[in-house]
Amino acid sequence: MLIFCTLFDSKYLDKGIALYESLCSVEDEFKLYVFAFDQRAYDILSCQNYEKMRLVSLKEFETEQMLKVKQERSAAEYCWTCTPITIDYVLREFSEPHCTYLDADLYFFASPKVLFQELQDSNKSVIITEHRFPPSEQKQMVERAGKYCVQFNTFLNNKQAKEVLGTWKEQCLDWCFYTPNGERMGDQKYLEAWTNDYSCVHELQHLGGGVAPWNIAQYSLFDENRKILIYNQSTFPLVFYHFQNIRYLPFNLVNLRSGTKDRKMKNAIYLPYLKHIEMIRAMLHDEYQLIFTIKKSYYQNPLLRVIQNYVMPFKITSLSDIVSLRKLRKSI
Q: How confident is the model at residue 331 (pLDDT cuts 50, 70, 90)?
């Protein structure tokens, strides 16, 4: 059985449910531990009673040390702080043989078993995934965000993996801010030392694990037997996509901020996801009167928060990135 964990609050509940349901569509045997970061998310998920989901409340999870750093960090920064702690909690408290952290805005298009087979074949204990920035942007983006993306991170429940996890956990508790400074950035840049410092860390090679707005322009897409395949110099199935950049705008518009001008790519990847999100949002509104806002910010600085909430969502690199939700809902 595959064991996963993720964390989100009610503002991300639509994406978290979409993640869970996408896993259900591609994998029969799995368990997803969800760390509910507010009471409303916990209550709604409890009512939904998802068969393959195990809920963990903040009351169960948070320690005095965590509550102390929580006061010093933005909501996003605190979530990043908690990433290694959630993995550690699952391994310790539930004695699972392994655990893979998933960002809540991931979505699975194929079974991830192939990714775990790669780890098994490597005889190692930890999976990390590269951002895989385009060569023209590699140096600048790695300097800013780090070589690796905290999105799909697997740890076996053994001594070697727990040594890596324990160090990462302490590092994030000590410092985890949205402040690129060359040495650190959130929870991500800590990973850059792992392949040198630990022999048990495997860098995921399967390109289908980790396609995202920051690397999608390197690929072309075609369908084969109704499966999504992406090719560059070689063909590979899309296992999961990281929908990190989507921004909801006023007037029922969405800015995909997809990183590609390829309409075929957007139709194959983004439109099914948006339709799924809209169905989940309709359910959450009808059953729980939950309404989602368009704001999203990582910063503590008030001015930077305003810019990220009200200016950056309108940054458009391709007109085909703008999607009308009204039209989309009619096609559901």
A: confident
Give residue-wise pLDDT tens across range 128-172.
Answer: 999 999 988 888 888 888 899 999 999 999 999 999 999 999 999
d(CA 320, CA 297): 24
CATH number assigned to the domain with residue range 2-330, chosen from the 4 options 3.30.590.10, 1.10.10.10, 3.90.550.10, 3.20.20.140? 3.90.550.10
Q: Which of 249, 321, 329, 288 is nearest to 47 (CA)?
A: 288
Whole-number Å distance between alpha carbons of 46 and 99 = 22
Q: Hey, where are the domains in the chain?
A: 2-330
Cβ neighbours for 283, distance < 8 A, ≥ 6 positions apart: none
Could you read off the pLDDT of 102-136 as tens digits, one per residue?
999 999 999 999 999 999 999 999 999 999 999 88
